[in-house]
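Why do we care about 3D structure at all? Because function follows from shape, and shape follows, mostly, from sequence. That is the central idea of this module. The next example makes it concrete: a single protein chain, its amino acid sequence, and then its structure expressed as tokens.
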Amino acid sequence: MIWSDVETARLDAILDELIPANPKRDIPAAGAAGVAHFLSDKAQADAGFHATVSSLLRLAADMADKVTTDLVRQLEAQAPDDFQMLLAETYKGYYSRPDMRVKFGVGAHPVHPQGYDVERESAEILAELTAPVVARGPVFRDLPGDKQ
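And the structure:
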């Protein structure tokens, strides 16, 4: 682990607040599930991410002795960009695990080659999504000598 034991314990507590446990469905919190190891691997490969998480851990230690939901909200308010990076990587580390995906009714297999069933968008949603593109009109240049 790239962080000290104290920092790792603080990180686990923050992760448990970001993705809490659901004991009724036998779903562990992110810290308890070991997502800190995923984050540590990412931090070893990405110095910027290491600095981001380390900064958040120092900020958390300066703000309170114990990690609470309120502390996590304060971290988000005081360091929103760093917090969003931690949150995104936490989601990746948690939901990419086959043992977690099964708990949410998503296959344990990789997305490819089998893939997942995805419902098609309704005609109304497609019209809404494409309306700005249609309204913009063509945005290409005619090739020299192309006479249409």
